[in-house]
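Human: Can I borrow your eye for a moment on a structure tokenisation matter? Separate attempts, laid side by side, tell us more than any discussion would. Could you pick a protein and write out its sequence and tokenised fold? No explanation is needed for now; the record alone will do.

Assistant:
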Amino acid sequence: MAVPSIRIKTGNPRIDAQCLYRYYPDYWEGIIDHLWPKLEHLTGSRRKDLRYLKGFMEGQYALFKGELEAFAQELQTRWDKIHEPFMSELEHILDIKWSRGRISGYVSLAPGNPRNIQSREFVLDYRQNIEAAIQACAHEIIHFLFFRKWKQIFPDHDPAQYDRPALAWHLSELFVVLMLNEPSISQLVLTQRAEYEGPYRFYERAMIGDKSVAEHFGGLYRQHRGDMKALLEQAYADALEYARVFEGFR
């Protein structure tokens, strides 16, 4: 079966520094201030800030190295048991084959579970339990194949549109939850139904007409079940039409 391998590794201060630089303070200010109240606010100088953040995280990794390594080993063992059926089912749902290679997941001290579509890497917060981490792995891995399908349909789109706050990114977050709840996927990776959590509850509050954003795009998902090309074309057209709604996401 020609699918990428999934390698779960221990993160490192360089990766965490890059995550913090990317998301703090615009998106992670509250949680970072809670986790590390002594972390200084950034100066705006990329080189200086990355050097400072890497040094700060080196101190943190010295404290948690053993825990991170044990978590990564357990997660790899658990993931290997479901890897092939999960990757195969995603090909069926998204109607596209994987490319070969590797996807790397890093068990990390950084909060949240950020990803890099271009490098095929994602970060996992070690503070979650192993069942939540398996779901987080599945969530992030779906994004990689989702954007492979997106590129097939919209080949002229800049990869910068694969990240927040672009409309394609919003659609990926909306549809990944629905894909996680497909029976063929949920039986492999979920202990309970996937929901929109944290800031993604926005999709259940924001309205398009008399329906929430989640209801509107969930309806499209059901309407175009089995035709991913038609789904993404219609979803993107609707996202463009109602783009102002997404501006309220924080």
